[in-house]
Fold:
Amino acid sequence: MKTPSLCSLARGNALGNRCAGPALLSVEANADVGAMERRIDNFGDEASLKFLPPGRLVVVPTPGDHHCLFHALGHLARHHNHPKSHLFFDERRNEVKVVRLRDHICYVLDRDWDALATDHPELALANKREYLKDMRSNRWGGEPEIDAALRVFEGVNIAVWSNEMPNRPPVLHSIFKTDEPSDRGVVTWPVHAERTHFSWMRKPAVPSTARKGPPPTPLSTPSYLEVRDAASSRRRRENPRGGGNLDDMLADVRQRMERKYRLSQTGA
Structure:
C-alpha cells in the first residue's frame, strides 16, 4: 500500500504525475532514512517538501537496461540481508537475477491484480495479459511493481526519493508501506528515481582510514637507564661468562688493549 507524499514536480518521470489528498507521512527510524513524522497539507507547497539531509544517503547507479528498478530492489535486498536476497542475487557474478525477480513480481501482480488496481488506476485501464507479458520481458517497472515488491519482500517499506528540482537535494516522493510485517521488524529501503530511471541508495561508506575508539598511544623515547639495561641484557646473552659486571667488562677491555699492544710490538 502506498502512502502518498508529494506530487511529481515534472511530468514524465518514473513515478507518473499522480497525487492524493493530505496524508500522515511516517517513516520508521532506521539507519538509512532516519525518523520523521509529518503531515503534508499541501503537496504543491514547497515549504512542505521533505528534502534529503546532505550526506545521509548516496545514490548507487544501476544499468539503464529497462531493468533498473529490479536491479535496485535486488541490490537493496542483498545490502539489507533480507532472508530472500539469495533468491534474487548471484553472489558469484555479483549481479541481480533480474528474470527471476520479474517473475516473482509478475506473479504477485497476476494474483492481486484487482486489489492493486484500486491504488493504481493504470492497471484497471490496461489489458492484464498484455501488461504481464510485457512486464515479464523488458517493460519498465513503476509504482505497481514497487507495490507488488512489498509482497515479495516481507517486512519492507520502500521510500522513493526523486531529483525533481534542479540544484536541490532529493525530495521524498512516495512511501510504499508493507501490509505484511515480519518477525525481523520493518526496514525502509531507499530508492532514487530520476525521470525514467531507478537507482538504489545506501549510507556513505566509511573511509578505510577512519578509526573508531581512542587514538593509538604514540611511541615514547626510551630513557638512558632503559637503553643501558637493554645493552647489559644483550651482553649477558652474548657472553654469559662475563656476568654483566661493569668491573669485569672493564677488565676484559683492558686485556684486549694490552694484547693488541703486545702484538703490535712483536710485529715491529
Notes: DSSP finds nine helices and ten strands in the chain. Residues 3-45 have pLDDT under 50 and may be disordered. The longest strand covers residues 187-194. The beta strands are 2-4, 23-27, 36-40, 58-60, 89-90, 95-96, 156-162, 171-176, 187-194, 197-202.
